[in-house]
């Protein structure tokens, strides 16, 4: 989980002793947004709710030990990257080793020395900031600011597996800007880039469910991954996107389709029983691909959406085809 680049750092202090919490809170008060939990259960809830950048964790607490809290977080794929710094009354090598082996980044014995706590907290927050930056660079498209192709591939594969387990429908939209080569030729590449940014923002504005992903699929093509969505609803969303781009009224004097920028969209679904549906494309009905045919299944879903897109182009562009 990653927050906005310039937001203040968030630090969670966990200790069953209010005096220690007050002391640690005072030592690092100027590092950002500091919040507290006094039990393991409360700490885990807070990690989910507030997604801290760093956790200062006591080892001995009545409900759950810090070691158990650490182990639970490191097992959760969503929160495993959270850096955990133990601040513990234990001074023995075994406890320190145990904490580090469970995945903690650091271990400080009580009573904590304020300058040491500050220095280590600063180091771990800086590292977290850099890691978040790298994650962003690896997953966000530099031109448009939406998810890149790598995120699309990863998300589609995750959602495909989830769909096969849960048997809920998964939809895919492929979106292509009409006559964009002519746009570049007429207005220049820089204007073309700006046009792609504007279109990406308009498309993103159409998505509201947290699980939906809009990505730049390549060049002037975008894709939307829509988990637990019926083909009907996907078609409605596709039409909403088409209209949102039309409503931008971006001039395109060289287009054959009209005098303004437009998009064509293809939609397809993987529905119950792992079958893809999309017009014209033969229904894919392989065995439910828990893992074996995952890639074949994903390829079939993309091909089905692509077939719709191809027909939308052939039928005159600026339209949605299932
Ligand atoms: P169609 O309606 O059939 O999709 O025609 P088209 O011209 O949009 O399709 P084609 O695939 O022939 O051309 C796509 C164009 O998109 C060519 C390429 O220069 C342009 N393009 C791809 N990526 C970028 C980009 O990042 N910036 C700009 N400015 N143009 C891009
Ligand atoms: Mg304690
Ligand atoms: Mg294209
Ligand atoms: Mg093309
Ligand atoms: Mg195009």
TrEMBL record:
Domain of life: Bacteria
Record bears the keyword Phosphoprotein: yes
EC numbers on record: 2.7.7.65
Reaction equations catalysed: 2 GTP = 3',3'-c-di-GMP + 2 diphosphate
Response regulatory domain segment(s): 10-125
GO BP, sorted A to Z: cell adhesion involved in single-species biofilm formation; negative regulation of bacterial-type flagellum-dependent cell motility; phosphorelay signal transduction system
Record PTM 4-aspartylphosphate, positions in chain: 58
Matching InterPro entries: CheY-like_superfamily (IPR011006), Diguanylate_Cyclase (IPR050469), GGDEF_dom (IPR000160), Nucleotide_cyclase (IPR029787), Rev_trsase/Diguanyl_cyclase (IPR043128), Sig_transdc_resp-reg_receiver (IPR001789)
GO cellular component labels: plasma membrane
UniProtKB keywords: Phosphoprotein
EC category name: transferase
Sample GO molecular function, one term: diguanylate cyclase activity
Domain GGDEF, first and last residues per copy: 168-322
Statement: the UniProt record of this protein carries the keyword Phosphoprotein: yes
Entries under CDD domains matching the protein: GGDEF (cd01949)
Matches recorded under NCBIfam families: GGDEF
PANTHER family in alphabetical order: DIGUANYLATE CYCLASE DGCM-RELATED, REGULATORY COMPONENTS OF SENSORY TRANSDUCTION SYSTEM
Name of the protein: diguanylate cyclase
């Amino acid at each position: 989980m990653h927050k906005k680049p310039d937001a203040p750092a968030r630090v969670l202090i966990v200790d069953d002793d209010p005096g220690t919490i007050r002391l640690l809170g005072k030592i690092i008060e100027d590092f950002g947004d500091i919040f507290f939990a006094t039990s393991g259960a409360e700490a885990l809830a807070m990690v989910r709710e507030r997604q801290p950048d760093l956790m200062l964790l006591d080892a001995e607490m009545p409900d759950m030990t810090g070691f158990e809290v650490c182990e639970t977080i490191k097992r959760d794929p969503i929160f495993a990257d959270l850096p955990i710094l133990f601040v513990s009354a234990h001074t023995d090598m075994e406890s320190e080793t145990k904490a580090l082996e469970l995945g903690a980044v650091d271990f400080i014995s009580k009573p904590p020395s304020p300058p040491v706590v500050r220095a280590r907290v600063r180091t771990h927050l800086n590292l977290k900031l850099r890691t978040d930056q790298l994650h962003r660079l690896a997953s966000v498209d530099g031109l448009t600011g939406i998810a890149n192709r790598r995120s699309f591939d990863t998300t589609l594969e995750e959602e495909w597996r989830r769909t096969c387990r849960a048997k809920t429908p998964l939809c895919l939209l492929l979106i292509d800007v009409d006559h964009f080569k002519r746009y570049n030729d007429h207005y220049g590449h820089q204007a073309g880039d700006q046009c792609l940014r504007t279109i990406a923002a308009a498309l993103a504005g159409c998505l509201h469910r947290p699980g939906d992903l809009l990505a730049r699929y390549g060049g002037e093509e975008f894709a939307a991954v829509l988990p637990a969505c019926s083909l009907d609803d996907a078609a409605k969303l596709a039409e909403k996107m088409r209209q949102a781009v039309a409503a931008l009224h971006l001039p395109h004097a060289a287009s054959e389709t009209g005098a303004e920028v437009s998009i064509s969209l293809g939609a397809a679904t993987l529905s119950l029983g792992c079958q893809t549906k999309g017009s014209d494309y033969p229904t894919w009905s392989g065995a439910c691909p828990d893992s074996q045919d995952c890639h074949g299944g994903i390829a079939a879903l993309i091909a089905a959406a692509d077939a719709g897109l191809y027909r939308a182009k052939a039928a005159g562009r600026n339209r949605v085809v299932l």
